[in-house]
């Protein structure tokens, strides 16, 4: 494993493994999927994707929570630990975080990070959305249904889920198209 990804794994384990074991199981599943996906990426992008996958939910850790909005808290924590700005930014904007930031009035703070438009961005969302809370693979529709059920008492989360659904679906579609093209080129 590359140095940045290894450091990200270490940081995520330290923050999540004991205090939030279920979140840690999900994180391990996302990172494992990201590592498989990363095999089709150029050097640099591959390690960035895996590092971001390890760190994407670190903002849930009690030791990391500041605003209570986990993408922002996680991105700031990643930056404070010295991870590359690109990794922190991928954490900040993962899985339609910008939509919820707008609803929470945190868009200005999230704008401290630069959202990138790339296959790395899409693959991070894809790895997250295709992994259930226990770390197992899941379909897009099942994952969205699971999130909706888990957040049933959180109207802001439900509104963010609805508003962010097209962006989530588009990222999923682009990731699957990229996977199909990667298979074609390799075959
Ligand atoms: Fe996640």
Automatic annotation (TrEMBL):
The record's annotation in SUPFAM superfamilies points to: HD-domain/PDEase-like
Q: Fetch the InterPro entries from UniProt.
A: HD/PDEase_dom, HD_domain
Highest taxon above the source species? Bacteria
A Pfam family it matches:
HD
- Residue intervals of the HD/PDEase domain: 19-99
* Protein known as: Metal dependent phosphohydrolase
């Amino acid at each position: 494993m590359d140095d940045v990804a290894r450091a990200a794994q270490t940081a995520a384990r330290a923050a999540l493994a004991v205090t939030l074991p279920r979140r840690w199981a999900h994180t391990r599943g996302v990172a494992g999927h990201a590592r498989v996906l990363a095999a089709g990426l150029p050097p640099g992008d591959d390690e960035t994707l895996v590092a971001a996958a390890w760190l994407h939910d670190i903002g849930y850790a009690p030791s990391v929570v500041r605003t209570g909005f986990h993408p922002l808290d996680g991105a700031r924590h990643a930056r404070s630990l010295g991870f590359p700005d690109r990794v922190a930014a991928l954490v900040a904007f993962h899985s339609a975080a910008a939509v919820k930031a707008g609803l929470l009035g945190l868009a200005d703070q999230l704008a401290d990070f630069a959202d990138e438009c790339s296959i790395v961005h899409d693959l991070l969302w894809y790895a997250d959305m295709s992994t259930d809370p226990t770390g197992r693979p899941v379909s897009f529709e099942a994952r969205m249904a699971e999130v909706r059920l888990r957040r049933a008492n959180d109207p802001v989360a439900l509104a963010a889920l609805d508003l962010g659904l097209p962006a989530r679906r588009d990222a999923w579609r682009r990731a699957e198209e990229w996977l199909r093209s990667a298979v074609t080129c390799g075959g």
